[in-house]
Amino acid sequence: MTTASAIALLSLLVSVLALATAVAVYARLRLLERTALAPGAVAMTDEQILAPAQLWPGDAGRVSRVLLLDGTCPICRALAEAGAQHPVDTVRTVALFATAEAADTISDLTELEALVDPDAWAALSEGYSPCLFIVGDDGRVLERRFVYADTDMPEMLAELTPSNLTR
Asked: For the domain that residue 151 is a member of, what is the CATH number?
């Protein structure tokens, strides 16, 4: 075995180990998200997240469905389309963007209320988009969901209607 082939095999081994580590970390984060970091989990019971006032529904008994989006990801576009296609009478649906350029990506979806507010976006952002937040009439975040490519968005939106939410 030559030195070049030994180095190549060693670098292949390091690459495989790095990939396995990345997959393991991703799997652990998804598990953590479904258990300890779920909004209804015991670990989160003392944490009351308040949404910025401009995202509140405005009327008593209503909720806001806040879609935290950016303009570059195709999953964000898919979530915006799902939100536009599944309106609920007692739900204010807001597509929240950090920049006007990002909001322009959904300008054809007139069913959505697009809001450009970098401060509100930063207040809710946890470093990943898209996310779906349900905000109660008192401003509390009742639910938070991360949205992935494999998320069944219509099912998730149907699940997070006022009649299915517990306060």
From this structure: 3.40.30.10
